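Input/output pair, single chain:
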Amino acid sequence: MKKDLHVRLSERRLNKLRQYAVDKDKTITQVIEELIDTLLETK
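Output:
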């Protein structure tokens, strides 16, 4: 089951994220999930 995540971003960062998603033909959710998957595991 998916959960919601609410974050506050500056307009500049939000626009950058939106443009990146458009350029890669992905949703913002896909971009964020893929970024999270690249993070190193912490113990």
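Residues 11-23 form the longest helix (13 residues). DSSP finds two helices and no strands in the chain.
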